[in-house]
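Troubleshooting: if your tokenizer reports a length mismatch, compare your output against this known-good record of 62 residues.
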Amino acid sequence: MIDRHELYVMCNCGHGESVRVLDLIKVLGDQVTVGFAISKMRCSRCRMKNVREYRITFSAGP
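Known-good structure output:
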């Protein structure tokens, strides 16, 4: 069911975006923690490392 999880991250600039957890695991390895993944993220709008908030979401869809 991990394939239905996403990490939603919002930057201090107000830009927010979701990343599939499976994609994070593919890039960072299967032992990655949420904290480590966030420490590597950079906003695609302002290019800064300024995570204001984050949450893991789950899609119950098909």
